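# nightly structure sweep
# worker-07 picked up a monomer target from the shared queue
# config: single-sequence mode, recycle default, output format = structure tokens
# input follows
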Amino acid sequence: MSKPSTKKKVAEHLEVTIESLDEEGIGLATWQGKRVLVPGTLPGERVEVAVDNEGQRQMGGRVLRRMTSAPERSRRWACPHAQDCLGCGLISMDYAAQLRFKQEKVARALDAQGTQTGARVLPILEAPNPLGYRCSAKLAIGKERGKVRIGLYRRHSHELVDIGDCPLHHPLINQIASVVREEIERQGVWVYNPARGSGLLRYLAVRVSPTRNEAMVTFITAERNYREITHLAKWLVKKVPQVVSVQQNVNASAGNVIFGNQTLKMLGHPALLDQVGELRLRISPTSFFQVNHAQAERIYALVRRWAACRPEDLALDLYCGIGGIALNLARDAATVLGIEVVEEAVRNAADNARLNNLGNCRFRAGDAAELLEDLELEIAPGAVAVVNPPRKGCEAEVLKRLAALAPRVLLYVSCNPTSLARDLEMLATLGYQTEEIQPVDMFPQTPHVECVARLVPKKTP
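# output follows
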């Protein structure tokens, strides 16, 4: 005789009042001592929730019915995919309230470290366009019940949500995704099935130049394919003539990494020509570049102003990417040295220096800590340094070697307040005082916030 199950049954429906938002902008409530995470809700709202999962300390669910609405709930925009996609955690919130949330998020991260209380946090720079600002997108391609889907995976699942006309994407991205969806179905292109590990077409990556209204499209495939992808590319260009470059990237791996190591030009130009402020930039298919051009331009201008490079200065740009910050510094400094681990980005950066007639730039590919060690005898104290690391922030060894170079001003560009606060604390122990921090709303409708921090050497008593 089998024993009765001791697994606790998940309650189907709950009625809860949202108490606060977590760092990802997800509503938090309490039910019988457990946290309840409910995306798309705001503090003060009473909601009926369908519970999807339950653990020992928390449960997660989705809104079935909203009994009360918070004053901060937006009346200006709505997205029919918000409950499924969950890519825009704050889209239900009024924009002014979003800015307050992000300003407070930065302050909380700094307070948690406790050593940067003297830093002045400036009011956040709001985005001129809270919608339609994303100029690049990486979209998964799948098939369900014979219908092609192009979109994003639902958070913490393998379920693909077809997002249609995403309100955050540049309109050209949505147009391209729509045409690709139609052509995959019409031409019968074999869509990759991750569960079976079979198929051809896996992802669609699109970059748009908003100033030129042109786009580069990359089809990510499980294997190299000429005939089908070329046919698909030709029809795409015919229907959307703004597409000036079509690439094929081959990714045969079974993991969640989108791009593989091999990229082949199918049609048009090998890179996308873009412009941000005064800079012209060529961007290759797999290189990283900011998704919000308007706010990227403001960050470049701020970094240039805070750096205040003199004609005799050497400026160092760590994690330089395709050179956006370095090229702006080169307009004032004698020499700019950019360091980046991705070799393709370094080639892009050197190409962009030539494109802008900036002959005082050098770029090196390699590990930041190792290259900084090599530069200790080459860079005299008093240089200008900028770091723009990924979300995880800088390695401790990078910060130690950077401080040892004794730059007269150090600027830290970050997309993660938590890792920024941690690294500012370490730099404080290495002799650098954070004077001011400028939050920038690079990603409206999401909980993410960019920051630029200005540090100078501590004054000796």
